[in-house]
Each structure stands twice: as structure tokens, then as C-alpha cells.
Amino acid sequence: MKRYCLAFLTLGLFSVVAGNAQSLSAEEVLEKAIAYHDPNSNWASLNTTFKVVMETPSRPKRTSLIGLDFPQQKFTLDVEQDGSSYAYSFDEDSCEIRLNGSTDFSQDEAEEFRLNCERGQFMKDYYTYLYGLPMKLKDPGTHLNPEVQKRTFKNKEYLVLNVTYDSEVGTDEWYFYFDPTTYAMEVYQFYHDESKNDGEYILLKGLEEINGIKMPKTRAWYVNKDDKYLGTDTLEKI
Q1: Residue 107: left (phi > 0), alpha (psi -120 to 50), or beta?
Q2: pLDDT, tens only, 115-124
Q3: Would you kindly state where each structural domain of the chain is located, as residue ranges?
Q4: In this structure, are residues 42 and 214 in contact, taking their beta carbons and an 8 Å threshold?
């Protein structure tokens, strides 16, 4: 009898949790997710360095050393891949590029490694956006759909937030999947045109704590249309 009582109690508790989650607004879900990932509000003043190792089926392993110093408006990216290295350094509005340790490289080399400040700015935005989630969903130009969706993805039920952006910020449509109990972010997904089922989804596993912020340990990338595996990023402390 005690086992039956426990089962009914557990079921009742789950119903209360699910009911509370369902009644939350999108803004409230986002606030709870931010509280989980960045409980001490450290993101805005982050000054740290971490490593990201990217492995893909068809290319050599790429190791990126990323330096973020938000108070001083500095960003550095040092990349090693297939025996070569290149680096970007941003200090407020200035941009410096190095190839194999030197700022002196040819136009052919610049084209081979896609070395230009526009590419560097793209990589800066890329890393600060993805590793700044879900906090970055509070940035200007971000439009949070007020409806909280409930979706089952890979046999797990999630609370899902839908986000679009001002055109100058981004044109893709994003969905962010949160555990309904802890509010941990476990999946995100984007479409260029959702009616075509294009774009990608990213599975997040494990956590690495960087300056008090819980960041995804691994991110595995897949194509929405056919589940084709693209690669995995692994975050490592320095």
C-alpha cells in the first residue's frame, strides 16, 4: 500500500510542477532559465578565457582559445587547425589579425584562411551569442514570443520559447528548449525558412562552469531536414 501511496504522491507532485510551468509566461520561463545558468548575474561583467574544440566528420580538429573581457570591450580568438594558426584581437573598435604569429601575410593567405575583420566580427558575435545563451535573449532587437510552447523532442518534453530578431540583428527564427523542472537549456534550433524545414538543431549535454556561469559542455549540430550530423563543439576550462 505504501508503494501505491508514494506513486500517487509522485504523480500529484509532477502534476503541480507541470501546471505551474504551463502557467508561466515566456518572460518568466526566460528569467528562470537565466537564474539557472547565470545565478549571480556574471555574464555582463565576464572576463575570462576558455577553449572550444570542434570536431567534424570531414575536416581536421579545430581548437579555439576564446578571450572575453566585457568591461574593457576586448575579444580575442586564437585558432589552431591542421598545422596552422590564426588570431583575431578586438579592442573596442580596433581589429588586429595574425597568421602563424605574424601580422604580415599575403593576400592569397588572407583569402585561403578567410582573414578579414568582418569575418573576425562574425566569429566574435557567434561565440558571444551561443555561449551567452540564454542571457543573450534579453539583448535589444530580440523579440520573444509571449506564448510558451510544450514540445516533445527526442522523447523528452520541454518548455519552448520562440524568438525572432530585428532584421539588422538576424533573420533566422529560433526555438529554445528548456527542462520543465530545472529550466536548464538543453536544445536550440533555428530555421531560415521554417516552411522548408531548413536550418539546424543543436543538442546540449553536460555543463562546464565558467566564472559561475553554467555553459553547455558539448554542442552537437544536426540538420533539421534529415538529422545529418555536422559536428560537435566541446568546451574546456583553461
Answers
A1: alpha
A2: 999 999 999 9
A3: 24-43+140-226, 46-130
A4: no
